[in-house]
Design goal:
The protein is of the alpha/beta class and 502 residues long. 47% of the residues lie in helices and 10% in strands. A five-stranded mixed β-sheet has the order 5-4-3-6-7. Strands 1-2 form a two-stranded antiparallel ribbon. Helix 4 crosses helix 5. The radius of gyration is 34 Å and the shape is extended. The N terminus is likely disordered.
């Protein structure tokens, strides 16, 4: 645990020590983050942020369910996304250079309830709502749909939990309420019977409708010849429930936009309906949002598949490289709001060797760097986290990159820092092309002098490059001793005039 404490010292100082949930209270934001630190410490490998938040959300929902399973809760995805956002905010605001106003605003909601109820309407006690007194002792003016409303019996409890500022509130989760549990069980059995009867009724109506449509429209009849031709018959439907995963895959492969893919798919289904392959009253419209969701699912499945393969294959060699790019991002202002801005970032890509398959991408920014950190430390830290997340620290034997000093420094280079973190020596795979450029670079400096910027030269030859298209064409004057005879070549650079022969 000491190594993980030292890895996130600022995060621990902001959140506090790791600990379990208090099962008698609905968790606050601080409780959720502290439980996340506990899970990260107990895990065999370093969990990714989303995996960590999935486990936190599962535990939080179970505590809410123990209070009363009838309280409508948000979806799992919404709860996980919210936890991921709060975790990343805590990680960024825990650094010394974080914005003070934003940090104070974030800390102010630390000990407040992490509310995952669907209904967010204000709950008022009887005194505030001009009530002389009632059984519930609380009231709510709720405009939510009926299925999202909070049970009346839980209004006072949830009000106490929302108004608490700390770990404990005036009301806590106690033992099982036998009377209320019996009522809920009866209600659940009744709902299941209603749903079953409704389902049977819908199936009967659909079968009756299909038989009547087929008898009226002869084009919907499929003979044996059409079956032999693998023609699929789409039954009558009120909504478009087609699986369009193949359409999404083709759109990703060929770089087609969501709107264009939706228009083409809808036109193809319309042609199939006109040919009699699809029922006339079937909804064939494909919205661009449906295409977007399909593409997201495909990309997510591909990413998960690749990550599983990385863990199973136990990679032995990794290569990394980066470049500086002007990157757009949302900057946190002094007022706590986000504003669009630009900054220069180092974008690094990671690939496997052999095969050169793309694995990962990360960025390095000087604005997110602490005073005692260097760019090499940031790059090495990102590589180290990825290696631990995919459990290849034992199988990794080689690391490669360019021959820049940031990568190959004997004391503070990326590879040296990564070796110290892993606790073992690695084989260095340094790019030979970059290394071979160094003699040519020294030759150019000797002949024409060093460069003065990324596109300007200080020598006489380099200065002519910007206006070379305007210079007259001159006849080549060959140097007299360049011949292939038995006599050895004797090239003395001091006697060569670069402007005459280059």
């Amino acid at each position: 645990s000491s190594s993980k404490n030292s890895k996130f010292p600022y995060l621990y100082s902001l959140i506090g020590e790791r600990k379990k949930f208090n099962d008698s209270e609905l968790p606050t934001l601080r409780d959720c983050l502290q439980y996340g630190l506990l899970l990260r410490e107990r895990s065999v490998r370093n969990l990714q942020v989303r995996e960590l938040c999935e486990q936190i959300a599962l535990k939080v929902k179970s505590i809410w369910g123990s209070a009363n399973p009838r309280i409508p809760l948000v979806t799992d995805k919404y709860a996980i996304d919210k936890l991921v956002h709060e975790w990343n905010s805590a990680k960024s605001l825990s650094k010394p250079k974080a914005n003070k106003a934003a940090k104070e605003k974030f800390i102010s909601k630390f000990d407040r309830l992490f509310d995952i109820a669907k209904c967010k309407c204000d709950i008022l006690p009887c005194i505030s709502s001009n009530c002389d007194g009632c059984e519930t002792s609380a009231h709510v003016i709720c405009t939510c749909p009926r299925e999202n409303k909070i049970p009346t019996v839980e209004l006072l409890f949830l009000s106490a939990q929302r108004n608490k500022d700390g770990e404990k509130s005036s009301m806590q989760i106690g033992n099982v309420d036998i009377k209320e549990s019996k009522c809920q069980l009866k209600r659940l059995v009744r709902k299941e019977k209603e749903a079953e009867s409704k389902k049977l009724k819908t199936v009967e109506e659909a079968n009756t409708s299909n038989h009547s449509d087929i008898s009226k429209d002869p084009m919907l009849l499929i003979d044996s010849d059409s079956k032999d031709q693998n023609v699929e018959f789409v039954e009558n439907c009120s909504r478009n429930m087609l699986d369009i995963s193949k359409v999404g895959l083709a759109a990703v492969r060929f770089g087609v936009s969501d709107r264009a893919a939706a228009a083409i798919s809808t036109a193809a289904l319309a042609a199939a309906r006109d040919a009699g392959l699809i029922a006339r009253d079937c909804d064939i419209t494909i919205d661009r949002a449906k295409i977007r969701r399909s593409k997201m699912k495909i990309c997510k499945r591909a990413q998960e598949s690749d990550e599983r393969k990385v863990a199973e294959n136990k990679l032995e060699a990794l290569l990394f490289d980066g470049r500086k790019d002007l990157t757009k991002y949302m900057k946190l202002g002094n007022d706590g709001k986000l504003y669009p801005s630009e900054r220069k970032e180092d974008h690094y890509s990671l690939c496997s060797e052999s095969g050169g398959k793309y694995l990962h991408h990360f960025t390095v920014s000087s604005e997110e760097r602490s005073p005692d950190e260097t760019a090499a430390h940031q790059i090495a830290e990102s590589l180290y986290e990825w290696i631990l997340d995919h459990d290849i620290s034992d199988s990794l034997v080689a690391i490669g990159g360019d021959s820049t000093n940031v990568n190959t420094g004997w004391k503070g280079g990326v590879i040296k820092i990564l070796e110290d973190k892993l606790g073992k020596k690695l084989i260095w795979l340094i790019c030979a092309l970059h290394t071979n450029e160094l003699p040519l670079r020294h030759l150019m400096i000797e002949l024409d002098g060093p460069t003065i910027s990324d596109n300007k030269f200080c020598g006489n030859i380099g200065k002519l490059i910007s206006k070379v298209t305007k210079l007259p064409i001159a006849d080549l004057d060959p140097y007299p001793f360049f011949h292939f005879g038995s006599k050895a070549l004797d090239l003395n650079l001091n006697d060569v005039d670069p402007q005459r022969y280059c």
